[in-house]
């Protein structure tokens, strides 16, 4: 069965098409058919001006139309589409989502930060790790950061904060939002329980690639601090040249590291796993259940 998910984020829009596959034991895995990423960068308009410009709105509508054509080519019948922080804040966000639905037939749901955290948790990575530890999901996007704590083999707390890479670049994150996130982490993390971070988002995936670590290995907090210092000491143009980063990654990777390092320090987590999952993966998991899938999913 082919399933698809669309994530209209603050930095990029993503389309994931996956195919479910059942094992002899009855478990199901999702094989990636295609992943398309378009760097729309909606957040730069929204967090600076409060809405999307005509240019950005047109790019958004063309992207959704392109995704519609790909869905038709691949014969996808089941789709879940969501928009997050930038569209939540844009004064013309709802109107543009309605226009996209009228022009393409794709119904993109505007989801809250809490819902976004819930979909990311759908990947259930922590449930496959050691049972006697607490795990803190950290998903950093362009407009918001979602945190979900998994402790004693169940989800125990989750929250969303308007702290994202583009908001930081645009100096749109007040000090009290940082304090709110710090307080949440400090109050949610169990006392005397070892906490391990699980990172998602394009920036932590890129840092993992830069590290040369093998899949399944963790990154240390100290290594993230080193990358934050190293990458932050040069310009975005130099990051593009020396680290082979795309323009839409070179500017946001440093504020992303700032967020990961801060949260890990507050949680007293000295390592982070990077399973290369994100919102679109969680949407696929949720969609599978909605269309009648019952078997537990494998990663």
From TrEMBL:
<dbReference type="InterPro" id="IPR003695">
    <property type="entry name" value="Ppx_GppA_N"/>
</dbReference>
<feature type="domain" description="Ppx/GppA phosphatase N-terminal">
    <location>
        <begin position="30"/>
        <end position="285"/>
    </location>
</feature>
<protein>
    <submittedName>
        <fullName>Rod shape-determining protein</fullName>
    </submittedName>
</protein>
<dbReference type="InterPro" id="IPR043129">
    <property type="entry name" value="ATPase_NBD"/>
</dbReference>
<dbReference type="InterPro" id="IPR050273">
    <property type="entry name" value="GppA/Ppx_hydrolase"/>
</dbReference>
<dbReference type="Pfam" id="PF02541">
    <property type="entry name" value="Ppx-GppA"/>
</dbReference>
């Amino acid at each position: 069965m082919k399933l698809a998910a669309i994530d209209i984020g603050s930095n990029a829009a993503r389309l994931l098409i996956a195919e479910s596959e059942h094992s002899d034991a009855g478990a199901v895995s999702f094989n990636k058919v295609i992943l398309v990423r378009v760097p729309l960068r909606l957040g730069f308009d929204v967090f600076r001006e409060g809405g999307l410009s005509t240019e950005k709105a047109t790019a958004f509508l063309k992207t959704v139309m392109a995704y519609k054509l790909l869905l038709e080519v691949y014969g996808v019948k089941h789709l879940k589409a969501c928009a997050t922080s930038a569209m939540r804040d844009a004064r013309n966000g709802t109107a543009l989502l309605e226009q996209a639905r009228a022009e393409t037939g794709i119904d993109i749901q505007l989801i809250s930060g809490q819902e976004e955290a819930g979909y990311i948790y759908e990947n259930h990575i922590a449930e496959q790790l050691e049972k006697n530890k607490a795990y803190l999901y950290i998903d950093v996007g362009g407009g918001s950061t979602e945190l979900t704590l998994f402790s004693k083999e169940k989800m125990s707390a989750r929250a969303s904060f308007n702290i994202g890479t583009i908001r930081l670049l645009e100096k749109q994150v007040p000090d009290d939002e940082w304090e709110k996130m710090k307080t949440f982490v400090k109050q949610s993390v169990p006392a005397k329980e070892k906490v391990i971070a699980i990172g998602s988002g394009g920036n932590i995936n890129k840092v993992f690639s830069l590290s040369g670590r093998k899949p399944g290995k963790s990154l240390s907090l100290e290594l993230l601090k080193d990358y934050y210092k190293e990458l932050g000491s040069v310009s975005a143009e130099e990051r593009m040249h020396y680290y082979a980063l795309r323009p839409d990654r070179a500017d946001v990777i440093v504020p992303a590291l700032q967020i990961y390092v801060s949260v890990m320090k507050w949680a007293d987590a000295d390592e982070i796993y990077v399973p290369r999952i994100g919102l679109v993966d969680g949407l696929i998991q949720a969609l599978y259940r909605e269309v009648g899938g019952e078997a537990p999913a494998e990663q």
